[in-house]
User: What shape does this take?
Amino acid sequence: MNENEMAAVRALVEKSGCLHSPELVEEMVMTALRLGRDDSSVADLKLFVRAFKEMRYAAKVFRPYAGRRKVAVFGSARLSPETAEFRMAEEMGRRLVERDFMVITGGGDGVMGAAQKGAGRENSFGLNIRLPFEQRANATIHGDKKLINFNYFFTRKVNFVKETDAFVLFPGGFGTQDEGFECLTLMQTGKAKITPLVLLDTPDGRYWETWEFFIKNDLLRMKLISPTDFHLFKIFHDSDAAIDHILHFYKVFRSYRWVREKMVIRLAARLCDRSLEVLNDQFKGILVSGRIEQVGALPEEAEETAIAGLPRLVLTPQKTDFGMLRLLIDSINNSETED
Assistant: This one.
């Protein structure tokens, strides 16, 4: 686009009242105009428009609840209320809310409906997918403003990953397996934030052990994955133990972001000097250069005013083994702090 056209876009964005990150809004407008000039097909344009509308609407629905952590619960829509898995999912939903989490599901019946029944309507989100069969909103979330209907699986998946602070998977079919492998793939490749991934079954269930056997016996044996990838998930047969695992993940660790090649880890409290030395000794093998340093907020984080006061750990790790970065977070949560 030439300078006059870019100036016209800037004027339009300014006139529209977009005060937050207007330069990014300008980029979206210019990208849309370029699509029109690219002689894109009607089918492509319809896909882009609908996907963009779905992403915008979902962000609007989630925004008022940004201050609360959320757990996504996956599992079969076909399991009836008489099954042990259904009862366990309902109990899981209730106990998550007792610990101040909100629950996100696909909005359907079975495990999803059970988890939302336990969590209650006011503490639930439903990310429903429009299908010709099976997937309809469960009674708990039906008609609620936090039920979002998606036409595309990919926009739905983006919102699950973007908004979720932990994942819990019960036994399920292709959809559950798809969600689980998607989460693992995104964390393994660094395309999604590292979060707890819990594989939960009834006390006498063997669903996830059978799944893990395939992962070990075939994928690991053939060197298609790495041994440290197993740090990205954990199997449980007890709801309380699974929730304790999620809570422990956020004991000292709060969040992280990348500032170019540096990983900036936000903490609830400063680590003591001895704990920092232990981390440097334990994880020196994953560093490209330098050490793990304890600092304040970086200039690049200036827009995140709500967490400006949190202490940080800054390191430059290799981006080839995110299982080890999960271990680093675990070690941080087991470290002594100054408070």
Remarks:
- The two ends are 54 Å apart (CA to CA).
- The CA atoms of residues 259 and 300 lie 7 Å apart.
